[in-house]
Design goal:
Length: 326
């Protein structure tokens, strides 16, 4: 009896498995909770971006969107977790341009920014302001460059740490202008800004929304804001390229959305369309503007190009400056 029952049941079992697979394939996306991995601490600009967009998506999709902060190793811990996630569209990575700049600072990387991720879309730009302490006589970027060249190595600049976008921005600026400045790395933005206000360091690239209140109080000078283009928050302040008369000096931080490699094109397209619509909403733009972020949007192809070109660009900056990891 056993030998006759099993063969009769096998086709039925196979049919049930096929039916179950087909049913799952037809489930509308999303049909369960979505997790957004943010490889930085709560309260940071990228975290606020993720929570703003996540809440909007949850309202549109009638589904929970969970922000999962995984800070550490300059974003590498959370990024690795995202890279190793199932490519089913239910784990997203929202990160900054550090996904490519980190490549120059770690001897080994736990992920490949090109191979391990499928780009979804660019999200926003965070403009950096070129800020000086009022004790410096320079009142324009060109005057600062002249002063720095007359005093090679004497002017100190601050950054929130070795390998941060703020650090790389200044190294790029040095390379484009031939200045010699001395780097003073801090553990975070707060202590660096505090020493800037105290006059212990003279210059820094600072997020525009951090710099503006101090500039308005006349405690710091904003000599430029934005890399190639003027920052939306300060339309009357020249961009760094304008102020220095130097081309190819894009120092702004970009934010973007990725999914693990292997995620279907249909899911990528749906995410791109829905998040693009959210970015165009007026209240979204207002919320992000308070964090110094300018929504951009864009296609997966645009993000793919940006990832490749900036990976090469910042690797060259690191090598030319001979920057060593901590």
């Amino acid at each position: 009896m056993r030998n006759t029952i099993i063969p009769m049941m096998l086709p039925l079992a196979a049919a049930m498995l096929l039916y179950g697979s087909a049913a799952r394939a037809q489930d509308p996306y999303p049909s369960r909770n979505i997790r957004i991995i943010v490889p930085f601490s709560p309260g940071t600009g990228i975290d606020i971006l993720a929570r703003t967009l996540g809440q909007k998506l949850a309202e549109r999709w009638k589904s929970s969107v969970i922000v999962d902060n995984r800070p550490g190793a300059s974003g590498n811990i959370g990024t690795e977790a995202a890279a190793k996630s199932v490519p089913d569209g239910y784990t997203l990575l929202m990160t900054a341009s550090t996904i490519v700049t980190n490549r120059g600072f770690f001897k080994t990387m736990p992920y490949d920014a090109i191979k391990d991720f499928a780009p979804v879309m660019p999200l926003a730009l965070g403009s950096l302001a070129f800020v000086t302490h009022p004790s410096l006589p320079a009142k324009s970027v060109r005057e600062f460059v002249s002063l720095a060249k007359a005093r090679p190595g004497e002017i100190n600049y601050a950054s929130p740490g070795n390998g941060t976008p703020h650090h790389l921005a200044m190294e790029l600026f040095k390379q484009r202008t031939g200045m010699d400045l001395t780097h003073i790395p801090y553990k975070a933005t707060g202590p660096a800004v505090a020493d800037m206000l105290g006059g212990h360091v003279s210059v820094m690239f600072m997020p525009i929304h951090v710099a503006l209140p101090h500039a308005q109080a006349l405690k710091l000078r904003v000599l430029a804001a934005g890399g190639i283009q003027r920052a939306a928050a300060t339309p009357n302040v020249p961009s760094l390229a304008e102020a220095a008369g130097v081309r190819d000096i894009d120092v702004d931080i970009w934010y973007a959305l990725y999914v693990p490699s292997g995620t279907t094109a249909g899911v990528v397209g749906r995410l791109n369309s829905e998040i693009g619509a959210v970015l165009r909403e007026a209240d979204t733009q207002e919320t992000l503007a308070k964090q110094g972020l300018t929504p951009t949007g864009g296609t997966p192809e645009q993000l793919a190009r940006l990832t490749r070109t900036d990976l090469e660009r910042w690797l060259k900056v690191v090598r030319d400056a001979r920057i060593q990891p901590d």
